[in-house]
Each structure stands twice: as C-alpha cells, then as structure tokens.
Give the backbone structure.
Amino acid sequence: MSDLDRDRIDPWREHGLTTAEYELIIQLMGRKPNYGEMALFGIMWSEHCSYKNSRAQLRKFPTTGPQVIQGPGENAGVVDVGDGWGVAFKIESHNHPSAIEPYQGAATGIGGIIRDIFAVGARPIASLDSLRFGALDNNRTRRLLNGVVAGIAGYGNCLGIPTVAGEVYFHPDYQENPLVGAMSVGLVRVDRIFKGSATGVGNVVMVVGAKTGRDGIKGASFASEELSDSDTDKRPNVQVGDPFMEKLLLEATLEILDRGLVIGLQDLGAAGLTSSAAEMAGRAGNGLYLDIDKVPLREEGLTPWEIMLSESQERMLLVVDPIRVGDIQAVFDKWDLDAAAIGEVTGDGYFTVRKGQEILARVPAGLLTDQAPVNFRSVREPAYFKEKKKADFICEHEYGDVAELFKRLLASPNLASRRWIYEQYDHMVGLNTVGRPGGDAAVLRLPGGSRKGLALTVDCNSRYVYLNPRLGGAIAVAEAARNLAAVGARPLALTNCLNFGNPENPEIYWQFVQATDGLAEAARILDIPVTGGNVSFYNEYNGRPIPPTPTIGMVGLLDEIENRLTVDFKVSGDLIFVVGKTREELGASEVHYLLTGRDEGEVPELDLALALRLNQFLVVAAGRKLLRSAHDVAEGGLAVALAESALAGGLGVDLKIELDVSPPALLFGESQSRVVISVRPDRSGELETLARSFALPLTYLGVVGGRDFRLVAGGLALVVPLAELADLHQNSLARLAAL
C-alpha cells in the first residue's frame, strides 16, 4: 500500500498521529475519537506540546535548590534574589516560523516569551536572544539575519523592554534552518507569583487581549515537522505580532493581578486555546469547558477547529471568580482590549469543547497532558563521532603570517563585534541596564534602591556539541556560568533551549541523550538548577540536520552591584594575568575552522571541579575589589580575549608570554576554564595568594599600555596597531551583513 493510499484511509494522519498513537487513544478513551477529538490529540500529542521524545531525558536535570521558588512545569521558572523579590526567566525557540517569515517569526518569538513572564505575575525587565544562521556569503542568510534582527528590535523596542545581551553564530549547516531563541527575564514579589492552573469548580474561564484570527493555525504541528522546499507556502502557520497590543495586554494583566482579580492565568502560545485550556485543567486535576461561540473573532468564517488551534498573538487565558468577571472586563475596556467569558471550570475531569449547547469534543484532560506518550527512542553513535577526532592539524609553520591570521580571526563572522546587531536594540530603556551588551554578561539593577545586581547571559558552542555532545553540553553550562562569574555574579539557575534534528533518527537522538546528560552533569556539579526551558526537534531542511545546539540561558546575582567587573583594560601600567591552565588544544577551534572549513578534532578538556573553583575565585575577587577587569577566554582563544579587552578599553598591551605550549595553541587554542584579568601592580601579591587558596593556575602575561597590540611568545613576535584591530573587529559584521 502506498503512503498516499494510507493517508486517505487513515484520517488520524491528517492530525500528525501515528497508527500506534491512534490505537492508544482508543484504548484510553474506550471508544474511537471523533474528528474534533483527533484534532485535540494531534496538537497536544505533537512533539512541540507534549515533549514526548524528550521528557524522559529532561527528568535527569537537577531542578531544586534553596533559591528555586518555582521550577519546571509552569509558564516560567522563578528564583529568589532576596528582599522579597523573585526573578522569573525562560528561553524558547521560534525557529521554523523565522525560517519562513524572519521578521514576524522573531517578533512573535519575543512576544510569546514575554507573555510567559508576565503570566507568572512578573514585570518583564530584559530580553536576550540566541541566533544561528548559515554562511554570510549567502543572500538568503543575509536576508534572514536582517529580518530576524529587525523583528527582535521592532517588537522589543516598542514594548519598552531592553534587549541586553545575546549571541549569534554562523555556519553553513544552519543555511535553511536558522535558530531563533528568545529569553525573557522579569521581577515579581515572591508572595505574588501566579500559576497557570484552573482551580475552583464553577470559576469562569476568560480569554483576554486581541481577537482571534486565522494566523498561526497548526503552528505547533508545523514546529514538529522538518522543513523542506515546499514550506514557502506555510506562511499562514506563522503568527503575526502587534507589540503595541502586547504593551496594552501587559499593563492590563499586571493591573488585574495587582488588584487580586485572578485565580490562574496562562499565555495563549503554541496550539492556542487548546493547549492553554488543557494544560490549566490538567495542572489542577479539574475539568473545563469552552464555548467557541463566545470567543471574540476578528474575521468571519472561522471553523470551530480554526478557533481552537489559532495562535493569534497577544492573548491570555484567565480563570476568575464569577463575581470578578465584570471588574476584569472594566479593566480591559479601559485598555481597549477584549475580555470575554468563554467557559467554566468543572469537576468532571473532562476538557470539553462546545458550540453553544452542541458538544464538539469531550476528552479527559489528563489524556491530553499527563498521559501523552513518552517515547524512548533508539540511539546509535554516528560514524563521524570517531572519524572527526582524527584531524591532522596544520603544523605550526603552516599558519603563515600570524599577524594576518590574527586579524582575519578578529574580523571573522563568529568573532567580530556584534555591535551592529545590539545597536539596533534599545538596551538602555528603563534605565536599569548597568552592564551593556558586548561584555561577558549583562548586569541590571534590582529595584527599590537595592545594592544588588542581576547578571544575565546566553551561551552555546554548537561545534563542541557536534564533535562531542556530552562534553559540549557540559561546556555550554560551564561557559554560561563563567560568563556570570566574570562580571562578579554568583550563578543561580539556568533555562535551556535544546535545538536538535529529527529525534526519530537514532544518530540525532544519540546526540540529544549525550548532550543532555552532559548538561545535567555540569548543572549538578556546578550547583546550578534547571528551572525550565524548551525542546525544539525536527530542525532539518530536506533531511539535513542542524548542528546540535543546546543553548543555555542563565541568571546570577551580585550582592553589590558596584563591585561588578567589566572586560575592558582601564589603566596603563596594570598587570595582565590569565587564570586557568592553557593546554596544547587546537581541536574544534575557530582558527582550525577558519583555515580548513572543517569541524573536527578533540573538544577541549573540561574539569568541572576547577570550573567551580574559578567561578568562586572571581566572585570573591570582585567582592574584594581586587580586579580592574575580567574577561572569559572562549572562541578564538587567548589572543582574541586579550584583544577584546584592549579594544574595549582603548588601550594597547605589551605581552611577553612563557607557556609550555606551541605558539598556535597559546594564541588560538580554546582551553576551557580560563579568564584574562588585570590588576593594580600593588595588589598582585594579594591576587596570587587568592589564586593559590583556590588551587588555580595564575600566569603573568604582560602590561596594559600603549597604542599597539604587542605580543612576544617563544620565537613569535606579533605587533598590530590597535586602531587597525578596532576597525576590523567592530565593523566587519555590518559589512558582511549588508544586503
């Protein structure tokens, strides 16, 4: 029987259900589902909504700690930062929509994650982004990059929420399937956190905000499929955002929360009314019915299932006491938004969809949520995993003119300054941004005259994860934690955005299992709990998967914001050191990829115990105001980190380095758990004592000063005017991205 014939015979396939899943539904319900019920199961059992291919792995993450107020399972995680305040934060992807319609895909990704934050009662204070695109010599890549950046800026700037940090990398394997991760952070009083739960039989269910239209229908199903050449016709699956409407919704929602008018609330995101209502009922163990005739519509002719599956933006679902319905409608009238009572919480445990008195679907709510299938996929180590380790690295003499190579690295797409991007974002609105984009982590003031600061970062090196998924996953966590420690912050918790290819492919699922195992191990050892996140599978185009990209978003706390560290060298005559050990490691490095165009070699070693000590050392050093600057050594190696600190401060360096490694590994190797620091000469002895107390290697590199980048190591001498490096580093991305 052909696949076409089977599709005609098996109607459940229209809803993305397998034959085994359909048979399981019949078994659980004790009868065959009707068309509408199959639609409910199809969307709620999709990968995007049910996490059926990932839940078993996600259970391995550490999720608790004294600072965790709310962990996974709600709209956003919340951690305690003291003084009665909690920080709500979460990261999610909007990859497929951004591949089809980059501006709206990115904009609605920002809008959706922001709604997750104010759905727990928090006021959003910052956004971050994590982006991946193909090679920049491709016209489509440039169009996608410009569209996504414009979408992030257009939505966030209109809302008045600063975009304070992010990351962007380029690789041909993201050519047709870019990644767009959006992270939002908000502040909430710890006694005013709200949950997305439909409690209280007889309470009213309301939909508030914008009217419902056809945009985004089956968006969750679209996100649970591979992309292909035929997907240019899927623009109706992409939501359309209105940031001004979102601003009204934000203020109206926070007003009704402040007045105590709400019992539970939920963002209407993927799968619209269907997922939001089913999840709220499932969390409470209650039933719930919706009457689609009462849903405010912005166009005529929508079918019942278009209404239920629409992903129209700027909407929320509320559960309220019946006596509060009028009060809520009055608030939303004031903000010129719709607020309609469309259903009721019931005690029967069923999720029921009605059209007036006609019942269109009636399914136990738990079947749609808690009892969705959990798949334990087969795994197979890819052939490339061992082959890629056998790289023949370019010999030292084949590196050619080291000064020219150094300049090429600083100007390359993955290492050039991201200034062209973040200058399109309003990162100062709200006047709380202290540590601006361009450093290791953003730093924001906490409210009410607090002396504390909040540090934020996102991070992932997908080349490391591709070449060694377990080690690469652990490095992503360690790198994010080091970013926070490099500004003087103690890491508190993380959220993740796990981007992979098709989980039905045993080699892809092996990558996923290995990477999440590494992530879990690093989180445990570094004592950084996971409070939530997002899994995005099926990131493939015509069967070609993206590199595995488990992005980490992390928050940290500075007890004294005035003690924060920055990357820039500040005073001529200051001494420069590197904390940590430099090894003979060139595998998986940017310099090797720049010279060969190949991802290969051994990923750098990671000592998690040393990584933890380094983080603790940096926090103590910041607290003692011992350091003038600190900068994480990451992609590009020690030479790039030194150049970035020199360029940030506008001061040259005079370096005479003696390390027992080859010049290429010294300059460009990416050994982990290293930080470049500068210190006043009269405090260098105190620095050495502190490093010894944490059992950390400390190596003197040179002195801040002059107008050149001067470096002598072994028989190698490198001298480049700082002004020349500044132009290459700061302006290359804008030139490469020009349409």
Summary: The longest helix spans residues 139-159. Residues 291 and 357 are 8 Å apart (CA to CA). Residues 3-44 form one domain. The chain is about 35% helix and 25% strand.
